[in-house]
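The material for today's practical consists of a large collection of protein records. A record pairs a protein's sequence with a compact description of its fold. Instead of coordinates, the fold is spelled out as a row of discrete tokens. We will come back to this pairing of sequence and fold again and again. Here is such a record, shown just as it appears in the course material.
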Amino acid sequence: MRMWFVLGLCTLAALADVLGGLLMVVRRVGPRSVTLLTSLGAGFLLGATLLDRLPDALHELPNVAPWFVTVGYLTLLALEHMGNGRSKHHHGGQDTKGPRPTGHAVTAEVWIDPKAAALSFVGLLFHTFMDGVIIAGGFALSPATGWLMFVAIMLHKIPEGFSMATISLAAGTSRWRAFLTTVGLAISTLAGAIVMLRLGVTGGTGIKLLMALATGSFLYIATSDLIPAVRHEGYRAVLCILTGVGLFSLSLWLLRWTGLS
């Protein structure tokens, strides 16, 4: 019963990717709304990574966890660099500016090479797989940790799906295909959860190692992807980032005060 409950929460998180894609392909959302939501998610994710997941990983596997955190960070760095390296500007005589991605996005002012969009999709598949891993793994460690990870991930899922659809449209794909990329991200999230739930049956070491790997990927997303994407938006974005960190700190304190963490 508990396994199905956790899988249900992972399904909700996965559907948030799809919702973000729908918001892009069906109805344009104002850039300010996306920026503020992304900023709040960035702050909450940063708090979850530095104040909860990283200390726990170093405590549980002090000799091994730093290596896995580093590998998780560098893996996303490499995947995103491959996508960014293939982004191109169109220098034709007409204005071909398309939608500008936000959040987990490869930004291109006017046009994105389809190969770059495909590489971005691959990178986000890895990230969303780790989303599922960290939600299910959090519940395997404790209910309180699972709920914190679920909230942290949900807050950045909609901008994530929005960004993937934006990248696809900027690469010249149809709205239907752009939407399907967000469905792929949702499936990847569920796959990560299923893998983690299966590992949870066999033993705790695998969970801790995957959680350390996911911690590295979250550290990269928060510090190198989400925050740089919104910090130029002014004091509102900064305030939302600080609010996100504060909300996580408050939720973590409440859980520890009540003895649930």
Notes: Residues 31-60 form the longest helix (30 residues). The chain is about 80% helix and 0% strand. The two ends are 21 Å apart (CA to CA).
